[in-house]
Amino acid sequence: MHPYRSHTCGDLRLSDEGQTIRLSGWVHRVRDHGGVLFIDLRDHYGMTQCVVDPDSAAFGLAETVRSEWCIRIDASVKKRTEETINPDLPTGEIEVFIRDMEVLGSAKELPLPVFGEQEYPEEVRLKYRFLDLRREKLHNNMILRSNVVRDIRDRMWAIGFNEFQTPIITASSPEGARDFLVPSRLHPGKFYALPQAPQQFKQLLMVSGFDKYFQIAPCFRDEDPRADRSPTDFYQLDMEMSFVTQQEVFDTIEPVIAGVFEKFGKDRPVNRNWPQISYKDSALWYGTDKPDLRNPIKMQIVSEHFAGSGFAIFANLLEQPGTEIRAIPAPKGGSRKFCDRMNKFAQGEGLPGMGYIFWRKAEDGSMEAAGPLAKNIGPERTEAIRQQLGLDVGDAAFFLGGKPKQFQAVAGKARMIIGDELGHTDKDRFEFAWIVDFPIYEKDEETGEIDFEHNPFSMPQGGMEALEGDPLEVLGYQYDLSCNGHELVSGAIRNHKPEIMYKAFEIAGYPNEEVDKRFGGMVNAFQYGAPPHGGCAAGIDRIVMLLADEANIREVMLFPMNQKAEDLMMGAPSMPDTAQLRELHLRLNLPDA
């Protein structure tokens, strides 16, 4: 017999009754039933109930074992009595009677429980992540992740893509976040960088004649953490194609993403009709470029109803250039209590508040508008707002004003709260949307200077001709895919023509010499017959987070950092010793404590 196991803890069935078997695994829990011990033995594959009584030679040792000890048992398989069958376990029709036992690894007192899914402080969970990963839910999340990655690979190979690995140690390249720098021992004073993405390399592959590339790529960015973003590293499905249009990229990646969600989404509906929404409309309707379309509420501009009105705050605001008033419809939100709560939310977000109107039934049976705004602007304007928003008795609307960039993020949050609290958001499905037509440039309001607002490597819509006009009107062939309020995919049709690239950077204040310095390898390659090309990258961690129905990305990553970008288990980051610093020709200049 094998030294550790003849079967796994998920194998045994009623057909194995009478066999002598060997199992190895972890003690999930021990129960004492009047001198008879029941041990639930667990491994990667499942759970088996084990029984040992005082007649067994192993009983004395069995009395000493505790939760999470790693043991080996020799036992015989027996049928459970009808009343003790556990239909929730694949092995629930049998139990095994222990004849011999060996302790393979004892365990100290546990710093956190493995049995059950109790909440525990994150600091403890991350320090003892190897124990945390034994918990059923987290363990299943990692198996889900593994299966998703395998499925994505299979789908990409099936549609003609080739998998290549690009360098991990490379040159620094601005991708919208800070680089992790790696000092060079052989070149004192110089640094490599960990890639924020394989962006330049995958474009160079297209110049090299590889028509369809993909990679499950590690990416490294020194970013501030949030619930759906790691502060250090993440994985993405990276892909690139030659001789393609934007729509062809969509048509290629949509079946891959949709197929993964249909296969692993726990039977939650996946809407296959993915709208294409302009960046401008998304910001207006949803207050974000990653909208959650499970919430049907759309914001609208209602400036005309407040211009010159009796509500001086909005009327005076609209006299300033670049300002507008937006309304958030709130069907079924027509109570003063709810309106006051939303107003308090806005104040908590740093705004003076949110104006509101709600419609109710008057004493004579007619409909009337209520709230401070209604009194100030009068019935005619109020009725025009109601008709524009399509509201009725029992409904409300909330209003925010100013320059959109100053309030639209709060408006977007308010829209989601309204949708959730009033029951408009269907949580049990997946809704996707392409966000397109991103502006390439923005103007700094303080300095008046033009800089890139989004990916500088995107091909401008209209090419060189578009760059001759107003930079703030230039849109790029850039796109994101949003799902349930999270950005899952980002990509673009690339700017593969050196003359257009130089011009694009010149508008943002970067001379040709700076472009050559920063992106010399790619610019040089583009002068040797670069094909039109484009692609995208899909976040593996976020995909699995949504499929696992988790709110935090750390729940689908094996060994994540904490909110301070620290690895509590391995002790990273750590201080280098003097010899290491000397070898790298480095000296520390630490800030004052």
Automatic annotation (TrEMBL):
EC number in record: 6.1.1.23
Pfam families for this protein: GAD (PF02938), tRNA-synt_2 (PF00152), tRNA_anti-codon (PF01336)
Residues flagged as site, Important for tRNA non-discrimination: 33
Domain of life, source organism: Bacteria
Catalytic activity: tRNA(Asx) + L-aspartate + ATP = L-aspartyl-tRNA(Asx) + AMP + diphosphate
Subcellular location: Cytoplasm
Binding, L-aspartate: 175, 221, 454, 494
Start and end residues of each stretch annotated as Aspartate: 199-202
HAMAP family: Asp_tRNA_synth_type1
Family (UniProt): Belongs to the class-II aminoacyl-tRNA synthetase family. Type 1 subfamily.
Subunit structure: Homodimer.
General function of this protein: Aspartyl-tRNA synthetase with relaxed tRNA specificity since it is able to aspartylate not only its cognate tRNA(Asp) but also tRNA(Asn). Reaction proceeds in two steps: L-aspartate is first activated by ATP to form Asp-AMP and then transferred to the acceptor end of tRNA(Asp/Asn).
Protein name in the entry: Aspartate--tRNA(Asp/Asn) ligase
Organism listed in the record: Roseibium denhamense
